[in-house]
Amino acid sequence: MGIVKRNDITTGLSGAINKQLVFKQYKHGTVVTKYPDRSKVKLSEKQVAANERFKLAVEYARAILADPEKKAAFAKKLPEGKTVYYAALSEYLKENRG
Questions:
Q1: Are residues 50 and 86 in the same domain?
Q2: Cβ(60)–Cβ(96) under 8 Å?
Q3: How confident is the model at residue 22, as a pLDDT?
Q4: What is the sign, positive or negative, of the torsion defined by CA atoms of 10, 12, 17, 21?
Q5: Which of 52, 56, 86, 97 is the most exposed place for a label (fewest CB within 10 A)?
Q6: Is the model's pLDDT at 10 over the cut of 80?
Q7: Residue 39 in domain
Q8: What's the pTM?
Q9: Three-state DSSP string of 72-96
Q10: Which domain holds residue 73?
Q11: Using alpha carbons only, what angle is made at residue 69 by residues 66 and 91, rounded to the nearest 5 degrees?
């Protein structure tokens, strides 16, 4: 892990590069770390269930976006600034609590 200071190129940089480096932002500046190896991580049954639930929520939200009529109906009932995608995602997760 390295802390990058006074470097205009990496200031504000965040995310991964080619699954080798990860740039993170903290109060003291940009931190560079190696990409995490999660290949040996075993998820619990609850984590697997939560991942599956979220996967289904994403499928639901994408289906709403793909249908212009459903998308328009969703958009009508949303407050300003909220997107149809996140509203559909939220609705699915609330209706299908684990």
A1: yes
A2: no
A3: 93
A4: positive
A5: 97
A6: no
A7: no
A8: 0.67
A9: HHHHHCCCCCCCHHHHHHHHHHHHC
A10: 45-95
A11: 70
